[in-house]
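Quick one from the shared queue. A colleague (R.T.) flagged FAD-binding protein as missing a structural entry in our internal table.

Convert sequence to structure tokens.
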Amino acid sequence: MNAPSQEPPITAERQRAIVAELRTVLPPHCLLSSEEDTRPYECDGLTAFRQLPLAVALPENEEQVVAVLKACRKLQVPIVPRGAGTGLSGGAMPVAEGIVLSTAKMSRIVAIDAHARTATVQPGVRNLAISEAAASHQLYYAPDPSSQIACTIGGNIAENAGGVHCLKYGLTLHNVLRVRMVTADGDVVELGSTAPDAAGLDLLAVFIGSEGMLGVVTEATVKLTPKPSLARVVMASFDDVVRGADAVADVISAGMIPAGLEMMDRTSARMVEPFVCAGYDTDAAAILLCESDGLPEEVEEEISRMRAVLERSGATAIAVSRDEAERMRFWSGRKNAFPAAGRISPDYYCMDGTIPRRKLAEVLTGIEALAQQYQLRCANVFHAGDGNLHPLILFDANQPGEFERAEKFGEAILSLCVAAGGTITGEHGVGVEKLDSMCEQFTVEEIAAFIAVKRAFDPAQQLNPNKAIPTLDRCAQYGKRKVDGGRFRFAQYARHYG
Ligand SMILES: Cc1cc2nc3c(=O)[nH]c(=O)nc-3n(C[C@H](O)[C@H](O)[C@H](O)COP(=O)(O)OP(=O)(O)OC[C@H]3O[C@@H](n4cnc5c(N)ncnc54)[C@H](O)[C@@H]3O)c2cc1C
């Protein structure tokens, strides 16, 4: 978690000029500029970092988005796109000299095409609202971040969001067919297509996960998936985290792809059980939730296979949901883990890294050792099937030094992920939070390639500047700081920067 660099002070005159220009392209109810009105936009879900924007534009349609971007281009004003602000890496945090462009007023479902199994939606549509709109056709939108009640499809596209069901049904990237977006110049561009294939370079894949730095999504067409006729979940307890972690790999290597495969450690189960009363085994060192969906016969067969594998892997107790209400109850704790953290700790810091599944046990053991080292509690509740970890570091910001320790602990977890052959983010993006970790993950040459892509879309660096991609200077500084056992750990940076 690294604070962005200090920006030069903004003069009131500059702010007035920007607001005046925006007033010429937006109706009064679509522009906020008083401190009282812009304060709610000062941060996203990573609340440790805050910055008031100069103004907040709330366009109601694509034409207004174009007009805002053109006005900002004219005055060279940075723009931070924003959906629901549930991001956890500071991606939607404003920049001091810029404005926020919120898609809150663009929340219309444009069309549900049951025949093509697609939904075309505006960017501010909530993730869950797509499934709700498609429910009458027995269809739903599969990627289901735990924040799905609030987060928007625009934010999901920018972060390539994942969720419990992404192991079987794919991430946002695999479920978005087409994106309409506005470039920093104010040009409208369509990426992808509603046809099964699109000609030309696959810029849609480049765009998804680009954290609001390449364009502003104004419309998206997403795939809808038939609702399975039955879903059941197996809940298995383990008396040892390593055995639980190894069971995850055992399930997958037995040839099954569960509809969800999630893990909670004891701290997490004890944290959520009083909150949701799901019936979790709070004595277990780890709990696995393993879901099967499909036709009833398929589900019955797969559930008994899952059961057999989990028993062989050392499960100490197994329960299978008997009906839909019980299935939802089993999942309720997993879905509410983050809010439940607030019950046992004044503050928490949610990390996000991904590792190869076979390394789960090793990395979880490493996190436990780091918790001892940093003298902080850590709850692990995560998308185990995807190898996507979400360690929740529990701390109290009012205790001197705890926030700094939590930061260092988090950075050390990401280093563990990289060392295990994984990545520093799974689904929460880089934002402002993981800029230094990007320097650890990628070589200077790779980062230079990312910068070149950013420049190709946004030469003036106006869209969400200083997010997601570190500058080469920053990496050089980071490399210099990371002296490891007297050996310069990032020798490649020395080549460029001495
Ligand atoms: C309790 C909780 C649980 C969560 N669980 C999950 C989870 O299971 N899986 C997961 O992946 N994430 C999860 N998240 C993180 C977050 O919800 C996702 O990253 C989500 O995709 C963010 O959507 P948003 O609408 O809130 O976007 P914001 O936070 O507003 O923005 C996120 C990024 O998207 C950009 N952006 C937003 N709208 C647009 C647009 N129209 N055009 C271009 N760029 C845009 C912003 O600039 C920013 O960089 C969770 C967060 C919370 C608080």
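Confidence is low (pLDDT under 50) at residues 484-498.
The longest strand covers residues 230-238.
Added to the table.
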